[in-house]
Amino acid sequence: MGLFESILGVIALLASLIGAVFAVRSKAHKAEAQHEKQRADSAEATSDTQQRVDQARTETEQRHREEQRDDQISIDAGDRSHLDNGW
Question: Helices marked H in 1-87 — which ranges?
Answer without folding.
Answer: 2-76
